[in-house]
Every structure is written in structure tokens, then in C-alpha cells.
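Dear H.,

Thanks for agreeing to be a second pair of eyes. The structure we're designing against is below in C-alpha cell form, covering all 472 positions.
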């Protein structure tokens, strides 16, 4: 068993004093695709749109590898840095920790679009690796990041060579040696595909060297195929064969574990997007229906074959004629209308995957990615409905968010606040009184996680049996 809760649930006061945050039982790793800042209209998502109170780890995607020097560089210096009148997204991202000091901010390098070849070249020679590794620590420290996420997709693949497997291990070993003396985390996003895994990763060593493995359990099917299939099916479909046998979340997770990855290091990836097709014949609309074209681009992400959850839910909520099908193999919905067909994840399919995380006692969940959640709550009653759901299923309690915890001011001399500090309302609900600049009392409401109660003596949420009158 992992050591859970207990002293990890200290009530933590931010320097501003207004946010209380409780440490989470499981990770909720939130990837942010920073290019979403360029999306039009309600799809535009800037750093300040992130709600850091429902993430344990915030990962900025992506930095790049310079193909001349083999050092880490900003991918989009104007957006990422303050240099030359830039927007400073790195530092603004790290500053989100002011709203949740328990969260860690990491920088990811690579991703799909960076390809594999540059990384293969960099890792192939000890001097190049050294130059790269030596560039990473000062780069992270300059902007205040707490760790590094190595997203080489993938060693040995996409133009890589067989030696990448060994070189990747050397690279991780050297990165760990450089990062850990500074208390910086090292994580990787890894492939879910059996064939890639066998070629790319020496799993026991990779797992040993990493703090966490972010398992990208999605992109199993998409418009690169000529037939419909789900982006992230939980279980196999009876028609799966040939190259797509074992293309499902359950298989990938079990494969990583049975080949030596400890569950306590795995964050299971959950997609906040779908992959879609244009059906060749609208009357053939099940799995494995002929579909030779990608679904047309959505209005925000503007990418063929891909719709964010925000684009899917808006289209279904405000459009007509969609049929949503939930299939026992996918355990996740697909929806079709005329020739459109899209397989995606929603509240209920995430529930099934989150059950798996709890059942296998994994480190937690990873989500790709927060900027395609319904963050403007166009289709749901609250912002980030999917991310809130992930947090609640894993950690049982909504950490008070900045918006839902707006402190209230009371006049001086009121009986609610005899002095500064915490006051219990009942076993699990309590409030904080702080003196405001004009003698008014600033009052913030909080609640303790399930199984715990507020202990006024220690000013912490503690096991409920430790707090007199609250336990069984
Ligand atoms: C390096 O990247 C630049 C910009 O993408 C490209 O024009 C150039 O060909 C690349 N050089 C090598 C050696 O790959
Ligand atoms: C299946 O995989 C093999 C080996 O990787 C490849 O040569 C073949 O083109 C793939 N077939 C399809 C239909 O993708
Ligand atoms: C999930 O994977 C495990 C391990 O491979 C397997 O035993 C189990 O049958 C799978 N579940 C389903 C429903 O396929
Ligand atoms: C649904 O998506 C299609 C394709 O992007 C678009 O043409 C249509 O306007 C959308 N409908 C709604 C109601 O958003
Ligand atoms: C609460 O209970 C735990 C476990 O029973 C114990 O170790 C701890 O000291 C207690 N804390 C307080 C403040 O009494």
C-alpha cells in the first residue's frame, strides 16, 4: 500500500493566506498544450485559464531540442519567455503555484511534432548527451520549474535506430544524476503500443530512473486508418486483429505492469479529446465501418481528425441529429451524425478508467490535455467538468478552488471571528478568519477530505477518530 493521507493532509496556507489546499492521495497530472493560446474565440486558452487547484502536477508542453547545439530551447520564445517583449508563459505558468503551493510545475520537451530523429542524434554520443543534460538544469532553474518531462516519441521509432534503446537509458541516467541533487523531478510520457514498448523501453530500468511514467493510453485509432475505431478503447473489440490487436487501455496498462513498471509510478493517461472520421457510407456507422477521410477540423483546434471535448460537447449540445453509442468493448462513447463519426471520452468513460486507477493502486491519472476540457462551461454547469471529475474520483474531495472559495468580508467586531485562525462549523466544515487591511474580517470556507475532520488544536484536517466527537 502506498502511504496515503495521514500527515499529508495538512492544511496548507498559501502566502496570500486565502487558499487552503490539501495534499492529494493520487496524482492528477495536467498537461497544457501552450499553443492553445493561439486558438480562436472560446477555444483560446492562456496560462491564467488553468485551474491549478485540481492538478497535482502541471506540465507545460513543450520545449524543443536545438538541432545545432543539441541543447534545450524554448519552442516559441515570444510566448514562452519575457525576452524581447515576450509573454513570459513559462514564468506565469510556474506562478500558478501561488494558487496551489502543493502543485509541481514541470517542463516537457519533445512531443509528437518534434519527431524522434533529433533526439536519436543527441542521445547517440556521450558529449552531445552531456551538453544537453548540462543545459537542462539551469534552464529549469531560470524559470522556476520543479521538474522535467522527457517526451521523446519514441526511441527506436519514427526514424530512430535500434541503439536508441540503450542510449535512452543512458540519457535518463544522466538526467536523473543532474536533476535529483536539486530536488527536480524526472518523468516521461511513454507509448501504449506493445510493439513500440518492446523496441523502445527497457521497462524495469526506465521505471527505476523515473519519478513517474505518464502512460499515453490514447491515439489507438484515428484517421490514419481506413476504418472507424475508438481513440482510447478500454477493452479489445472482437474484430481487432493484425496490427491493432491489443490496442486498448487495459492491455497497455497490464503490459507495462507485467513487464516491470511498479503501479505506484504509473499515471494513466486520459484523453480530453476524440479522434474522428468521415464515414464512406453514413448507414455503416459502427466500429470498423469504412472511413477513408478524417473528420473535418473543429472550430478551435482546427485540426483534421481531432476534436477537443469542448468542440464535441458544444456540437452535441447545440447541434441536432447526433446518435451517441456506448459499446461494451470500448466502455467509451462514439457519436455519429450524417458522415461524421467521433470516438471520445466523457464523464462515464472516465469513471471506468478512474476505477482502474484505484483498483490497480496506480500513482494517479495524467490528462492530455486541460485546454480541451469544457473549461468555459458551455455544456456543463461548472468549468473543467472532466478534470473536476478526475480529481473527485481519485481524491474524493474538491479542493476549494479560487472561484468557488471567494472570501467574504465581515465588519470589525463581529462574533464570527473572535480572533485570527480556524474555526470549526462541524466535523468537516471549517472557516478561516484573517484580519483585512481596514480591520474587517476576511472569512474563507473550507472542508476536510472524507475520513478526516478539522482538529482546531492542531489547525489541521486529521483522521476523524483523532478528533473528539467526530470519529466512529
Ligand atoms: C534544423 O532545424 C531547422 C529549422 O527547423 C531546419 O531548417 C534545418 O534543416 C535543421 N537542420 C538539421 C541539421 O536537421
Ligand atoms: C502492419 O505492421 C507491419 C509491420 O510494422 C507493417 O509493415 C504494415 O504496413 C502494417 N499494416 C497496416 C495495415 O498498417
Ligand atoms: C484486462 O487485462 C487483464 C490482464 O491482461 C486480463 O486478464 C483481463 O481479461 C482484461 N480484461 C478484459 C475485460 O479484457
Ligand atoms: C459541428 O461541427 C461542424 C464541423 O466543424 C460545424 O460545421 C457545425 O457548425 C458544428 N455545429 C455546432 C452546433 O457547433
Ligand atoms: C492521529 O492518529 C494517528 C494514527 O492513529 C497517530 O499516529 C497520530 O499521532 C494521531 N494524531 C494526533 C494529532 O493525535
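And this is the sequence the design step returned. I haven't edited it by hand at all.
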Amino acid at each position: 500500500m502506498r502511504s496515503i493521507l495521514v500527515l499529508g493532509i495538512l492544511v496548507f496556507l498559501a502566502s496570500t493566506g486565502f487558499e487552503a489546499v490539501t495534499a492529494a492521495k493520487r496524482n492528477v497530472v495536467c498537461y497544457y498544450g501552450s499553443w492553445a493560446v493561439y486558438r480562436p474565440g472560446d477555444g483560446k486558452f492562456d496560462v491564467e485559464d488553468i485551474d491549478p487547484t485540481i492538478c497535482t502536477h502541471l506540465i507545460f508542453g513543450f520545449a524543443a531540442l536545438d538541432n545545432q547545439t543539441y541543447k534545450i530551447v524554448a519552442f516559441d520564445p515570444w510566448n514562452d519567455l519575457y525576452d524581447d517583449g515576450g509573454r513570459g508563459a513559462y514564468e506565469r505558468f510556474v506562478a500558478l503555484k501561488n494558487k496551489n503551493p502543493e502543485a509541481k510545475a514541470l517542463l516537457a520537451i519533445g512531443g509528437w511534432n518534434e519527431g524522434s530523429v533529433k533526439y536519436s542524434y543527441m542521445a547517440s554520443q556521450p558529449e552531445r548527451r552531456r551538453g544537453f543534460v548540462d543545459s537542462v538544469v539551469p534552464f529549469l532553474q531560470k524559470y522556476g520549474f520543479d521538474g522535467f518531462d522527457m517526451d521523446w516519441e519514441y526511441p527506436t521509432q519514427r526514424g530512430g535506430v535500434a541503439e536508441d534503446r540503450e542510449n535512452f537509458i543512458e540519457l535518463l541516467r544522466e538526467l536523473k544524476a543532474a536533476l535529483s541533487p536539486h530536488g527536480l523531478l524526472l518523468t516521461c510520457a511513454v507509448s501504449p503500443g506493445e510493439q513500440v514498448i518492446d523496441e523502445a523501453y527497457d521497462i524495469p530500468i526506465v521505471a527505476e530512473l523515473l519519478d513517474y511514467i505518464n502512460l499515453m493510453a490514447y491515439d489507438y485509432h484515428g484517421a490514419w486508418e481506413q476504418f472507424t475505431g475508438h481513440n482510447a478503447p478500454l477493452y479489445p473489440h472482437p474484430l481487432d486483429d493484425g496490427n491493432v490487436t491489443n490496442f486498448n487501455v487495459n492491455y497497455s496498462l497490464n503490459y507495462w505492469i507485467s513487464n516491470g513498471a511498479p503501479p505506484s509510478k504509473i499515471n494513466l493517461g486520459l484523453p480530453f479529446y476524440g479522434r474522428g472520421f468521415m464515414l464512406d457510407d453514413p448507414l455503416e456507422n459502427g466500429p470498423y465501418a469504412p472511413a477513408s477521410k478524417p473528420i473535418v477540423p473543429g472550430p478551435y483546434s482546427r485540426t483534421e481528425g481531432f476534436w477537443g471535448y469542448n468542440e464535441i460537447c458544444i456540437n452535441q449540445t447545440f447541434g441536432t441529429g447526433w446518435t451517441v453509442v456506448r459499446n461494451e468493448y470500448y466502455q467509451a462513447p462514439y457519436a455519429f451524425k450524417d458522415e461524421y463519426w467521433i470516438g471520445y471520452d466523457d464523464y462515464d468513460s472516465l469513471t471506468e478508467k478512474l476505477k482502474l486507477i484505484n483498483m490497480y493502486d496506480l500513482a494517479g491519472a495524467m490528462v492530455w490535455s486541460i485546454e480541451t476540457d469544457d473549461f468555459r462551461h458551455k455544456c456543463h454547469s461548472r468549468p473543467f467538468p472532466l478534470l473536476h471529475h478526475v480529481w473527485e474520483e481519485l481524491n474524493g474531495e474538491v479542493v476549494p478552488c479560487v472561484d468557488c472559495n471567494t472570501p467574504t468580508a465581515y465588519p470589525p467586531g463581529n462574533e464570527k471571528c473572535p480572533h485570527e485562525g480556524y474555526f470549526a462549523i462541524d466535523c468537516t466544515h471549517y472557516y478561516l478568519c484573517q484580519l483585512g487591511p481596514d480591520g474587517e474580517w476576511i472569512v474563507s470556507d473550507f472542508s476536510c477530505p472524507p475520513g478526516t475532520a478539522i482538529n482546531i488544536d492542531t489547525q489541521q484536517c486529521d483522521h476523524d477518530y483523532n478528533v473528539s466527537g467526530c470519529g466512529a
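Two observations from my side: Residues 235, 250, 254 surround 2-acetamido-2-deoxy-beta-D-glucopyranose (ligand 3) (CB under 6 Å). Residues 1-21, 399-404 have pLDDT under 50 and may be disordered.

Warmly,
E.
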